[in-house]
Model the fold of this input.
Amino acid sequence: MKVRKAVIPVAGLGTRFLPATKAIPKEMLTIVDRPTIQYIVEEVVSSGIDQIIFVTSEGKSAIENHFDYDFHLDCVLKEKNKRNLCEELDSISNLIDIVSVRQKKPLGLGHAIWTARHVVGNEPFMVLLGDDLVLAETPCAKQMLDLFDELQEPIVAVQRVSKEQTHQYGIVEGEEIDRERTHMVKRMVEKPAPGTTDSDMAIIGRYILTPEIFDLLGRTTPGHGGEIQLTDALLALKNLRSMYAYEFEGTRYDAGDKLGYLKAILAYGMRHEKLGSDLKEHIKELAAGL
Done:
């Protein structure tokens, strides 16, 4: 089967960025000249997905509005003869078919994905976290979709991290298969204590899941903080069918972390068509003065 739909949970409160996110969704924080969430949506579109399901919450309407048509703004820009801006905003509102569902209570990532079950239906789907950015020649989502076309099994994206960082992530223990950068998942450990795993493969915010996950999430017992953990349901799914971990090609930035957000701004800024050269020169000047 083909993956046609992508679920993007955007219901989180963004507490790591307070007070900046008190009134603005963290996904709307700008990286160079567009909000973080737009980079995620553009990755999905360029990878061939047909529909996006936003899982939202109260106070997140700015995300939906960003991808909607604004008649008043369009008229003002046309009156001022700002045709290029009109075309750019029009292209954003026509990027892809977007549906929103509401997560009424903050019960965790697993619950957010479960909330989208009626829209996804009985088919495989992709999950992308709204603050995980990946700079890559071939979009990370496209790399994973190509692999799914071949394997037809659930896939989690992973990256290598230092042993000192493993306690911050869900960690995959896997076995290499006869395909580059791909491992069959044997075990997953959520934020393992130091010394409890030898693996350095950390799960990041890209997943391709099969519809069995919804029933498993519905039966998952809430864990720490009363939240339904996705990792618990993934472990159960692994017992039903094969699951693979894929070391994607590209550089990942955690834009939900302050330092990661700053790194992302620099990385995307240096690649910007109009601003890149000047920014690189400025960074050189700064570095020389340190």
Summary: The first helix runs from residue 36 to 46. Residues 19 and 26 are 11 Å apart (CA to CA).
